[in-house]
Amino acid sequence: MSDIKTAAKQVPYDFPDKTGHFGPFGGCFVAETLMPAIKELNHAFEQYAHTPEFQQEFDHDLAYFAGRPSPLYYARRWSEQLNGARIYLKREDLNHTGAHKINHAIGQILLAKYMGKKRIIAETGAGQHGVATATVAARLGLECVIYMGEKDVERQAANVYRMKLLGAEVIPVTTGARTLKDAINTAMRDWVSHVDDTFYLLGTVVGPKPYPEMNRMFQSVIGREARQQCLDLTGKLPDALVACIGGGSNAIGLFYPFINDTGVKMYGVEAGGKGIESGQHASLLSVDGPQGVLHGNRTYIMSDTAGNILDSHSVSAGLDYPGVGPEHAWLKSCERVEYVYALDEEALTAFRTLTRIEGIIPALETSHALAHVTKIAPKMHKDQIIIVNLSGRGDKDIHTVANIDGVKI
Amino acid sequence: MNRIQTCFEQLKQKKQKGLIPYITAGHHPPAETLQLLHTLVKSGADLLELGVPFSDPVADGPVIEKAHQKAVARHVTLADVLDIVTEFRKQDENTPVVLMSYLNPIEVMGYTDFAIRASKAGVDGVLIVDCPPEESSILHTALDAKQIDIIYLVSPNTDDQRIKKICTLARGYIYYVSLKGVTGDSDKLAIDEVKKRINHIKTFTQLPVCVGFGVKDGKTASALAATADAVIVGTALVKTLDAHSSSTMYTAIESQMSELHSAIDA
């Protein structure tokens, strides 16, 4: 392990390697039937995504379609209440479609356009990535199929209807735990069956090469903006960054541009669900869970002693996933990011607090990050700064919260 | 010569094509899985492919996925599968057994440990669905050390450069995936195209080329056997197992196997 730490602490940070590995993690573990499609995608990513034309078009769409840059907002009352560090919220909830997911949706659909693909497929958990995908597909007039676990279809009905209004076909997935993991399985089966005309618009930093690196690139706009905004507003870099982790896309987006700023501490907050001992959670890195191969990459996964994938649990559909992006596994190994968890209950408390104190209803996913802020901010000095990624808005979750409150709406 | 080589050598001498059935271990209780393996051999199987249960079999269609789910619910593990093979070898010294697995159960057991235990059990080959040559070198070495063949897939859209690379690494036989899809997608099977591809692959390798995915009946098996060295039948058999009770499934499988066998020999 000490070799890993030394290797990973190299500055500047330069991962993944050419084969898509972050140390022992990542890679490209897919069936031969998918390899040609993966190779085509890798080739297109290398050929187009780094060109000035692509970047220009991407930046334009982020500005005029998504509404970037998103503000860095000083949460004055919340900071005063916690009586510690100054807390700034990176307002990804103000993006078009209400979450950070639009960033990589815009990037990937642009790549699909360059590749001449006519059909877009995606998986979704909370529905935010599905909505973002359906949105960008509608804008380009492309056929769009979204796979969503049946359980998530039930708990995110509004987003399902939103996707349908946008012209997407939403297919409920009835296998396994009927959540995000199973939606990814089914999307991969669709892709292998329609490799010629279909682009798989994967919604987080998991999957085979190039997805973790590609989505990091598209999401890094969050951290680039936040870094500059923080310097402009406060004249210095933040002391800590906090983001929630399901697959880990919003967290990587915020963290990556700060990765060589060794003075900036980073916290990734996983879903502790009903408690680690209950087994009903989605915490992998924070509890040092088992490693393995799932959905095309080697990473930490929730699995039993026979190697079967276990069902995860979280009050937030977007964190309800038994794997995590391979780069987070690597950043844990090299101790660059500290991974912790917040329980369902703690996230719900933070959800209510931010809503009442700052007039911002956060997504339940995001609320996990907020819950951790309430633990660290009071221990910090008043001149210290925390940036928390407010990755999505909570409108989609009001039914879940109302249900918990016993309110029928 | 190992069992797989001997098997194809004998077929060649007899000027026959092979029939390779696939079943998922644990689809039925281990004792019944074992009995099914013997039934398959008795009714004409030249080589056996045995699926290792996994919770997330992404390369499989709904029929085999369901078999995996049943096996996982029954808590049949990779270790149990190796026990089944050990038992099988007590009565059958000759029929080659190839495990068809996803990578994670093997990752969890550990590559070296797996290779040792599989060799001891009498496993002849391993095909890992989600482990392309780019990621297989460590496992490949571990299996080579125990003289277990690692079987690689070639698909309809694998380019020549890749076919060449895969053929260099491959042991045992080449598994040609007949269609762009998951197991059991028989509607998508284009027989003439498959034949052309098999002949093309044969220009890169001396190894036998076997074809699977989408072989649903004697007619397709017979058409493919004209070019391929062996035909692999999975979904069609698993479907039959699903449609029968434990008491009638052996006879049903026997009659389906003999239909396939005579079609291939015809």
How much of the residues of chain A is beta strand, in percent? 15-25%
Percent helix of chain B, as a range, is 40-55%
Instruction: Give the chain pair forming the largest contact, with residue counts.
Output: A-B, 37 and 43 residues
Estimate percent helicity of chain A. Answer: 40-55%
For the termini of chain B, the CA-CA separation is 29 Å
Global Rg of chain A: 20 Å
- Biggest sheet architecture of chain B: 8 strands, parallel, barrel
Shape of chain A: globular
Biggest sheet: strand arrangement of chain A: 3-4-14-9-10-13
The order of strands across the largest sheet of chain B is: 1-2-3-4-5-6-7-8
* Terminal Cα span of chain A: 52 Å
Output the number of helix runs of chain A: 16
Query: Beta fraction of the residues of chain B?
Result: 5-15%
Question: What report would you give on this structure?
Answer:
- The complex is a heterodimer of chains A (409) and B (266).
- Chain A has 409 residues and is an alpha/beta fold.
- Chain A contains 16 helices and 14 strands.
- Chain A has a 6-stranded mixed sheet with strand order 3-4-14-9-10-13, with helices on both faces. A 4-stranded antiparallel sheet of chain A has the order 1-2-12-11.
- In chain A, α5 packs across α10 (211-219), α6 (128-140) runs parallel beside α8 and α14 crosses α15 (364-376).
- Chain A is globular and about 55 Å long.
- The mean pLDDT of chain A is 95.
- With 266 residues, chain B is of the alpha/beta class.
- Chain B contains 12 helices and 8 strands.
- An 8-stranded parallel beta barrel of chain B has the order 1-2-3-4-5-6-7-8, surrounded by 10 helices.
- In chain B, β4 (125-128), α7 (137-145) and β5 (149-154) form a beta-alpha-beta unit.
- The mean pLDDT of chain B is 96.
- Classes of the chains: A alpha/beta (409), B alpha/beta (266).
- Chain A binds chain B through residues 19, 27-33, 35-37, 175-176, 181, 185, 188-189, 192-196, 290-296, 298, 301, 303, 305-309, and chain B through 53-56, 58-59, 61, 65, 69, 72, 75, 77-79, 102-109, 129-132, 134-135, 152-155, 157-159, 162, 166, 177, 180-182, 185, 188.
